[in-house]
Amino acid sequence: MTRLAALLALALTALVSPAAPSAAAFSAASAACVPDPATPKRQFRAMWISSVANIDWPSRTGLSVSAQQAEFRSWLDLAVQKRMNAVIVQVRPTADALWPSPYEPWSQWLTGTQGGDPGYDPLAFMVAEAHARNLEFHAWFNPYRVANHDDPSRLVASHPARKNPGWRFAYGGKLYYNPGIPTVRDFIEDAIMDAVTRYDVDGVHLDDYFYPYPVSGQTIPDSATFAQYGGGFSNVADWRRDNVNLLVRELDERIHAAKAHVAFGVSPFGIWRNASTDPLGSRTSGLQSYDSIYADSRRWVKQGWVDYLTPQLYWHIGHAAADYAVLTAWWSEVVRGTGVQLYAGQAAYRTGASGQDPAWQDPAELSDHLRVNRAHPEMLGDVYFSAKDVRADRLGGFSRVVADHYSRPALIPPRGTAGAPPAPTITSLTQGPGGTTVSWQGTGAASYAVYRGEAADPCLVTDARNLLGTTRGTSFTDPSSGQGTYHVSALSRTHQESGAFSVVVDGPSASSAWGTSAYSAQRHGADYRFAAPVAASDPAWFPAAVPATGSYRVEVWHPADPGYNSATPYIVSAAGGTRTVLLDQRTGGGQWRSLGTFTLNAGTYNVVGVSRWTSATGYVVADAVRVSASP
What is the architecture of the domain spanning 44-147+181-406? Predict the structure, then answer.
């Protein structure tokens, strides 16, 4: 065999044996597959990209369109480089918009002037660029913040908060929409839903700013609103929590009514309540978001009003008031059995930063957080604040995270209970200067995952050890071109993965009587085997690992020539006995030809053979075989 055939995989000499494993043995091996915790197959990996105050993007106001777009592409490229699979981008930082919203003005963080048209649609651009890299795009909205100052006259004249002064209040030097006014809540939801319905976002994300964080000596000026709308509540705190609950619950309903696949998530403050206040709380002694900003995040989980929660666990391991390890365990218990996914909000901004606790001067601190996570199967990923700190990589702390935990890509954890799409069918493997390109027939799936590993490995897709990457296209180039079988699975918009499979075996194992040729341009891969007919059993065998007993479509590829055999016997090792199908190899070459659909047993064994035992004249040819799960 040539080098290409070896690259295309299939480690044939290791697979072929006189006695292939039985179906029972294969099933037992599959059941024994133990995922490597360092290479999880499913893990949400993202970073927050902040637009407010030009924290991350744009880096400053007034950049040209091309400069803004180049900067944003660089953030996405960074995410890909760090093997992330999502970004969370702030598109409504201060009751304004990074898209042409009919509800709110253009954000000042784009041009420097609130209401100033940037000359393009940033949200449409950002979603398209993220999806081109198969990154999920979660649109991040700050629900109530109007301005980081308290002067309404500085708002653009058309701003709804300026036109409706009764909607807002000033507190702590900032302006906020009043969460207690039903009209305001409807308006905020409408503004968010405009982005959801008009753009192909994958998620809606709210941050931790609900009612304002407490300011010493100040009181939230909503007593008149409470008097007007607080009927049925004996105290203002319960009423405020209900206002926030209504926003969360109604947004959840409206988002999923419009687009069922869009995820709804919140990144609340990391402490709900302390156990000293509430026995259901955590063993912490910090600010309680339930009491201070009226965010009952535990209830959102228990009621199923969110798809995921990303508590901001911005403390180090062993912190006296809020230990990361303690809070990770507490939040894991909260989501257990609810169907709500849990991701940890990670303080990348603390690593190596001056003025931080000495623990954050240890380059291993952030990586150690992810080791703590491994003890909690409910913890399904991490989100880092913020993008500029991921890029800064102070002390090499984030490089340590990547080396220790992100050595392989990961699929996003599946959301909901939708079915998986049909499995794709590999159509070709092509060697080029950039590596081996795997192509397949699309199935209308949202994306595809590509694996490469030993064909005999029943644990090929157990974790990410063999995962090469994902794409929204129907081809993928493997630059490493290592040995192994290629496997492609299909993923739905909510990341359910096709359980079926399709495998191409390019080149059989055969006796010395079979020659090797690259003469025909119709060959699959680098070469093929050929032999003269003989009245004896000397088949060239194609082995494959069949994952489960079931119905499979079997196809073959061969070059055609008038001098080849007109009745070549193909032997299929079907359940219940072998089946023989005769093909005329004088015609129909250079394409996949179906032998039919057969019930195959699970296991790794010689699935298809090309026999020399035929009365017809002319060479018999053995080139490639494709086995695919039947729809």
Answer: Alpha-Beta Barrel (3.20)
